[in-house]
Amino acid sequence: MKTISIALDGPAASGKGTLARRLAADLGLRYLDTGSLYRAVGVATLQAGGDPGDPAAATKAAETLDIAKYSPADLRSEAAGNAASKVAAIPSVRAALLDYQRRFAAQAPGAVLDGRDVGTVVLPQADVKIFVKADFEVRLARRVAELRAGGQTIIESRVREDMAARDARDSNRSVAPLVPADDAWILDTSAMNADQAFTAAKAHIASKLNA
Ligand code: CDP
Question: pLDDT of 72-123, one tens digit each?
Fold first, then answer.
């Protein structure tokens, strides 16, 4: 049986994680949040007393990563997100995580992967590629609500600065920058709630898989 692979890429708080999880459940596919791998490498580097921007320290953390050691609570903080976007700019860190992502996607019945470079680098042959985007202010409001709902005390101006810095780092890095694949379908969720984004993405996937 042929496996199905669906790539969802996009910037921070664009809604890709929520959408990817829901699509995977609906389609009976496995789900991988590739950002959690970079977040875990960032956290592991910090825990070892290293600097996430230091290639040697971050690469060592990536090559010895045990993803099962980290709970969602360890990984969803702003500190983890910022450390993630620093280790993610290091080519040897990305190389160390590539195989795991491809092997995950290759297992039956297939998978939905969300991240920054799934459609461009990890799975260039994905059956469906969706690039999820939303206006900066909309993404900021979503991230602030997400962090508060998770019980974190946050300063909105700090989250704004961190998100702008992370957008710039992710888009301008030389390795696997955040860009839509040439054959990606663009889904702008600025004016959509989660249900509307799901309905739109599902219709697009059905049209691609039945084409
Ligand atoms: O949820 P959010 O979009 O804020 O972050 P995430 O998807 O968990 O990703 C955290 C960071 O990991 C991003 O800012 C990227 O720098 C990096 N990342 C990446 O480089 N490539 C991926 N496929 C996924 C995440």
Answer: 888 988 889 999 999 999 999 999 999 999 999 999 999 999 999 999 999 9
Residue 111 CA to ligand 1 center (angstroms) comes to 18
Nearest CA to ligand 1 atom 2: 12
Best mutation site among 31, 34, 138 for ligand 1 pocket (most ligand atoms within 8 Å of CB): 34
CB–CB of 114/5 below 8 Å?
no
Predicted structure pTM score: 0.93
- Residue 114's region, left for phi above 0, alpha for psi from -120 to 50, else beta, is beta
- Complete DSSP assignment for 83-96: HHHHHTT-HHHHHH
Domains of the chain, first to last: 10-206 (3.40.50.300)
Distance set, CA 159 to CA 10, 13, 44, 59 (Å): 18, 12, 22, 27
